[in-house]
Specification:
By secondary structure, the protein is an alpha/beta fold. It contains nine helices and six strands. Bound molecules: iron/sulfur cluster (SF4).
Length: about 210
């Protein structure tokens, strides 16, 4: 019990440092809030201008006990309509990529750096990323994954805070909040450039070996 209380205290301290001053208290106060409860709580967020074009808030979905969290840059058209991440053609390819390394989509957690769709699929601006990042950091603090897979240069630049090409990001693994982090192509880029799939396959094999080793 003491360990759980310690964990809860650390979590509250973490939220404070992340700029979140208001917290949801579950009926069972010894448990951390579940992501579905937080999704409902945050769905009308107006912390940046991306709320203006929002049809649906796209918080994320998958296992709250995932060893692996996949992170893209932001929702597209299909995601904005459905409220679910990676459900269009790119999402279907992402599911196949996971299947290729024997990982089921329902066993991972999938989300984005920003939770509302940028107009015309433009890249999110730095102030929008900054406004939305506490939600992602909170998701990671709850899930406590062993690995992150960042999909595309925008997500990698936003979280790793480095100006590198995607090829340079892919050369090494990284750390984000103490979590071992891989970078590969965004599935939309792979749909536009099928010749890059062989490079993504190299990244996925490295991740799979690591994933299976724990
Ligand atoms: S993108 Fe994030 S910070 Fe901006 S309105 Fe949506 S949920 Fe809020």
């Amino acid at each position: 019990m003491n360990r759980e209380l310690d964990c809860f205290r650390q979590y509250l301290e973490y939220l404070k440092l992340s700029g979140i001053n208001e917290v949801f208290i579950s009926k069972d106060s010894s448990e951390l809030p579940v992501l579905s409860e937080l999704q409902s709580r945050y769905q009308n967020c107006r912390n940046c201008v991306l709320n203006e074009n929002r049809i649906k808030f796209v918080y994320g979905e998958g296992s709250e006990r995932a060893k692996l969290v996949l992170i893209g840059e932001g929702p597209g058209h299909d995601e904005n309509v459905t409220g679910r991440p990676f459900v269009g053609r790119a999402g279907q390819l992402l599911t196949k990529m996971l299947q290729a390394i024997q990982i089921r989509r329902e066993d991972v957690y999938i989300t984005n750096v920003v939770k509302c769709r940028p107009p015309n699929n433009r890249n999110p601006f730095p102030d929008e990323i900054k406004a939305c990042l506490p939600y992602l950091d909170e998701q990671l603090a709850i899930i406590k994954p062993d690995f992150l897979l960042l999909l595309g240069k925008v997500a990698a630049s936003a979280l790793l805070n480095m100006k590198l090409t995607l090829a340079e990001f892919r050369e090494n693994t990284h750390q984000y909040k103490g979590i071992k982090t891989y970078v590969t192509y965004h599935p939309s880029a792979l749909l536009r450039n099928p010749g890059w799939k062989k490079f993504a396959w190299i990244d996925l094999q490295k991740l799979r070996d690591d994933y299976n080793s724990i």
